[in-house]
Amino acid sequence: MRKTDHQEFMELIADSRPAQQEAIMADEDLVVVSAGAGTGKTETLARRYAWLVTTGRAKFNQILTLTFTEKAALEMRERIRIRLQDWYKRLSSRSRFQHLSEAIDNLDEAPISTIHSFCMRIIQKASLYFDIDPNIRVISSPEEFGFWNNLQNILRRNDWNWFDENVSDPLWQSRLSILNQEPFFLLLNHGGADGLVQLVNSLSDLFGSRGENPEWLWHKGESVERDWEEIIESFISWYAPEWDKEWSLWIENILPLMHFHGSSKVIDTFFDFNLRWHNRPGKRQLPYFMSDLIDSLTAIAKSSRSAVYLEIQDQLLLLRPFQSMIEYRNYLKEKYIRLIDILCGNVELSEDFRCRQFLIQSTAVLWHIWEEFKRKKGVLTFHDMIAYAGEVIKQYPDLTAQYSSIMVDEFQDTDLLQESLIRTIVQNNHASLFVVGDLKQSIYRFRHADLSIFHSYIQETQYNPESRSHIVLNESFRSRDVLVNEMNGLFRFIWKDGLSQKIPHEYEPLQVPNELSWWDERSTSVSAPHLRFLFLGDTDQPIKESERRCLLARSLADEVNQLVGKVMLWDKEEKKARLCQYRDIVILVPTRTFYRPLEQIFQDELNIPVIFVTDVNYFSRGETLDAVAFLRTVVDPKDDLALANYLSSPFSGFNLAEVHNILFHADKSLKNGWLWKTMEEKYPKFCQKLINLNQQMKLAGPASVLSELLKDSSHLKVIPRSLRRRVAVNLRKAIDLAREYELSIGNSGLGCARYLQDAILKEVKSEEANPVGEEEDVIRVMTIHSAKGLEFPIVALFGLEYASYRRPRNKFQSSRELGAITRYFPDYWEMNGQPLMESDVDFPSYFIEQQLQEAEEISEQQRLFYVACTRAQDTLILSGVCPMNKGEIVPKQKTWLSWVWDWIEKERKEDPRQYLIKSLSDSQNYSFMTTSKAIEESRDGGISLPQQPLPHLQRLTATAYAFYRFCPHAYRMRYRQGIALPWELPSDDEKGGADLGNMVHWILAKWNFNEQSLDFWLPLHQNRFLEIKSQLPIELRPFWKTNQDWEKVKVWLTNLSQSNLGLSLRKNYSDQKLEREMPFEIKINGGLVLTGIRDLLWKDDQGIHIIDYKTSSPDESVFPLYREQMHFYGLVA
């Protein structure tokens, strides 16, 4: 390179910051760039690319640039194009840089893409040499959904012939026998077919991302004991420093100051303890030391008045912030005792190992079936693409030999499989590797991103600095200086001990480029507050958590009203200040469960312009349900339920009054097709249109039929204006889903309708289409994951109180370290020849997995919080609902709220209570400039209520009647749309519930109400227990879990037998007057049939007595439903 060229090249990057220049020009084989939030990472990558091309270090087709999203790849290509064009114009002698002109002209052909697109190109290139179908493609959602749904049904009906037919490999055929053994049946009954299928899906995804396969998982099942020993060793290493500090506290600091004269329980206990542990224990002995310490503290608990005890406690108070030795002991027990028992070998492990081996190996067989299915179909998952590409490159390195330089964006989000592929290309070609990432912004653990990979690369640069370089970009061009200072203070406090237990990397504070000419104006021209806290504390009346979040949302709305059109913000593009607009504001939430209170307040109540980005409730939206009802109607017009649902939708062209009139006068004497017959008689043109659409579907497929919904936009007029765009884009997505089904499965309208209907019934999570552009003047509400890589002038974080880690609902769980685990033993699992009943005590392996997951989850939540806060350019609003305990605010530990609360208190030296929302009494008086739009919309497109009386139902049960009386909307969802309501769903933490209630009903139908006979029906002896259980209906057996359940029921029934009601029931039983579990079916008014089963009825001189048993906990909220049920039974009687 000539000297003049070098000077000219340096002028091209003169406006880059010093650290950016170092990264752009670095010549080492490995360059690792740690780029903090807003530090110009993308621009640095683009300039690095342009530098390599301009200086002749690499041609445009020799630089492989990998990103993780299509959007990032497009942005990267455009940034590079702009930079190349700008530099080419600025060069003095363009004739010598024709390679730069060539790069600009051919940049669309440059290998700049997502890692998955790159891998697919490699696979397609290799189809000539490798055993790969040249037409291989990515599996579609309908195909994937169909396989797992079918497997679930196969397991439910025990169709073992299906397994023989779908496994061709001889080795795996021999392993199929595991699916026909008793332990597998017990596991299947334990977790259910759906739980087992979810586990297989999860395992294939988890270990597929690590480059593993079913064969590896099968052998992992054989090594459960060896894996356990490695995990135990890791736990001891993690906790050894903490426990060594406890040893030092007692043996080196507290006990040497004690003068043990005479003899007492306290003196003898600690004297012996000191003798046993006088020498510092090794790492493997530390768990035993901790166990002995807890036992010693427990042994002297009753001697708290002795002088020596008080002397020890005084010394402890000087060194540890605990009020007493008892609290210190309780802290140790709560935190360590279960773990110590496991590490010291005080728990039984043999059955844990046997159970896990069966679970792992049976899921390995099912995973293999999934792999065979994909091979036969010629389809790949995203993990398969990378795995196949990696194998291809190892065998045919010439396919990637052209790449001399590799650049990877967002490297902190790579998994092992992706890193292995990148490493292979680098080693094959002796290429340079330039990776950019940020340890603090790794938030995709649920996609199996492995943060330790990026950390290991940073460490690699430290071990070999001659050929490796680590560069830190820490100047933020995003946030103003006062906000940067606050964020540095907050996260320096949160990460004072390092980023995590496994990665003790120090926090790298952000800086601001305050010497830039425009920076002073950027900082001083903004009038918006830089940091705001909104904490909701106690309320005048006790209310539900959801209602408290609505109050917080209303306060946040008030905050928004004080900003829009009133404060000045910095326009990054124009480089000048301007008034705040709605589009400048984003509300970030930890999960989409926080959408509802914001939707209720911002959209429904106050009509603030707001859009909820990437909501995953697509299959529960009304327009989606209507579109599926329309498709089902076209498939089979004589499906009365589908036709009725379609008629009730705005797309049918009928208003509700007309639909009511049709239903009211229809002849319902026909079993099926009665509604279609009525429509044929009254609306023949409408019916002919459906017939024509049916013919169209047979020729052109279901997507063409759904397209008809968008051809006539007049139907959208009855939908509120604020929702019309969402409805339109969701209908477009329905068409896309149908088209995807056609391409991957076929043109069957019936199959497509069933696929979409199953997705609705199974409540499949699917993102809604985004109905607005980037320039639309609306507030965006999105999850923090969706906001990654974005920036907004004002960021409001809603939901600081969110506690991320909860026990999984599924009884089975995939584990990176343990393979697969179950929470409890299955029913009838044999131990030492005796069948066991399920225990409420977690498996040792389950406990260990929870410890592993909780530690990693907390670390990721800290990083997620960092990503959320660093999206803000001018203003950050932190809002949360404070948990209350006896009138005091007690933030739950290890939540964002607790970290912010402690930071305010300990670092800012302020009382966090000063940021509590002052008044909620005037919340109904909030007014917004857009509220009038709600009135306008209510007038537009309204329909008159039907004048006729409501039509009669055909059949009605007591529960359905109670639902309708209590909440017609809930009735419609539950009984007309078949959607399970949230409060009906069982909870893993809930004892009893509907299953226990069914068991109690079964006993009460047979019992004579005599206390002495309860031992017959509720035996505590195991043999008799199993005998009674064998008499249960099959569907109830899996739910009768433990003898504790029997004891609970026995208490209930004993109390009943001893009551006045029990005496009356016993007498009526003897007199044979009781009618128990009696079904009824009564037609009233010549049409409606009242149907159901009555628990108990008898007649005497006082009248008719009816009892409906309830086993759930008393809750005033359900009493109205119970009362309506009794009214129903009274009418029947």
Question: What keywords describe this structure?
Answer:
six-stranded parallel beta sheet, globular, 1133 residues, 51% helix, alpha/beta, 6 domains, Rossmann fold
Could you name the CATH class of the largest domain? Alpha Beta
Radius of gyration: 34 Å
The number of domains is 6
Strand content: 5-15%
What is the mean predicted local confidence, pLDDT? 85
CATH topology of the largest domain: Rossmann fold
The largest sheet, given as strand count, sense and whether it forms a barrel, is: 6 strands, parallel
Helix content: 40-55%
Shape: globular
Task: Give a count of the beta strands, DSSP E runs of length 2 or more.
Answer: 26
Widest sheet: strand ordering: 3-2-6-7-1-8
CATH superfamily of the largest domain: P-loop containing nucleotide triphosphate hydrolases
In terms of per-residue confidence, which ranges show pLDDT below 50 for 5 or more consecutive residues? 921-950, 982-992
How would you describe this structure to a colleague?
The relative contact order is 0.08. The longest helix is centred in the N-terminal third of the chain and has 31 residues, at 224-254. This protein has 45 helices and 26 strands. It has six domains: 3-135 and 381-475, Rossmann fold; 137-212 and 350-377, no CATH class; 226-343, no CATH class; 519-614 and 775-809 and 852-915, Rossmann fold, CATH 3.40.50; 618-761, Orthogonal Bundle (PCRA, domain 4); 955-1132, Lambda Exonuclease, Chain A (Alpha-Beta Complex), CATH 3.90.320. By secondary structure, the protein is an alpha/beta fold.
